[in-house]
Design brief:
alpha+beta, 288 residues, Nucleoside Triphosphate Pyrophosphohydrolase
């Protein structure tokens, strides 16, 4: 950034004396934290079904006391929005953010009954490393990973059922329209139980993620070394079209991933430990 001149500094001092005539919003950050639902210590061939889990908190204070919400909160003076997002996520859940992907700004004037509050949404993706255990803190009475079972986002409709074990905690369903750039926009949400506009933030964040290259997005959800079977299962989960029911062409996908020229993946020296008489599977990693 260019260094301000003495004239600039003098002008800024005078400007601050009159800037109080403009209304100023408060700024918050809300985080859609995701992780794979499988456990790393379970043999992949014995646990082949992939699913996602999303992190929620239960609010301990007003407004919306006792409601489920996304982790997040107000950005403090002197910190960037990204710094505020990381701090709030850790204070409320004890989870440290790895990748923060900005997915939208939510500025509807009536989105928060406390006043004019603009929220900046982020997706935080977490691998299953054992370091993503959570607990409620700050103004969160509880923090919990809820499993997203058999979600559908297709043809202008979405249905996202969230489970705690075998219990359906809530389901977000409604409609959206696709945009030429940046994903889509939520139109309606039926029976939304979440605090503030966090249901809308979740849907629009997922719509934004779906426009990314799914072949590269899969890598954020995998450990450093993985089998092609695990990669393909996650890719199928992210790209499944329930309307067309078109199956992934697995042989073609394998060729694309390991092509001689510009492959996305490269083989490792190690192999997956075998179990129950299965042959060892080759492990791969992202090509450096």
């Amino acid at each position: 950034m260019a260094r301000p001149t003495k004239e600039d500094l003098k002008w800024a001092e005078e400007y601050r004396k009159t800037s109080g005539k403009y209304d100023r919003p408060s700024v918050t950050a809300d985080i859609v934290a995701l992780r794979p639902a499988y456990d790393e210590d379970i043999n992949w061939r014995e646990n082949p079904v992939f699913a996602l889990e999303m992190l929620f908190i239960k609010r301990s204070g007003r407004p919306f006391k006792g409601c489920w919400a996304l982790p997040g909160g107000f950005v403090n003076k002197g910190e960037s929005i990204e710094e505020g997002a990381r701090r709030e996520l850790f204070e409320e859940t004890a989870l440290k953010a790895t990748h923060l992907i900005p997915t939208g700004v939510f500025s509807q004037p009536d989105r928060d009954i406390r006043g004019w509050v603009i929220s900046n949404a982020f997706v935080s993706i977490h691998k299953r490393t054992g370091d993503e255990r959570v607990e409620g803190g700050s103004d969160a009475a509880d923090a919990r990973w809820l499993r997203l079972k058999a979600p559908t986002i297709n043809g202008g409709h979405f249905n996202l059922p969230f489970y705690d074990g075998n219990e359906n905690v809530f389901t977000l369903s409604g409609t959206y329209w696709m945009e030429d750039l940046g994903g889509g926009t939520v139109r309606t949400i039926k029976d939304n139980p979440l605090a503030f506009d966090h249901g809308k933030i979740i849907i629009q964040s997922l719509l934004r993620m779906l426009v990314f290259d799914p072949k590269k997005l899969v890598l954020f959800l995998l450990p450093e070394k993985f089998t092609l079977a695990r990669y393909i299962d996650i890719y199928t989960y992210l790209t499944w079209d329930p309307d067309s029911k078109k199956e992934v062409n697995i042989p073609n996908l394998r060729r694309q991933l390991t092509a001689v020229q510009n492959p996305l993946l490269e083989p490792c020296d190690a192999k997956e430990p075998s179990g129950r008489g299965h042959a060892q599977a080759r492990l791969f990693r992202r090509r450096a």
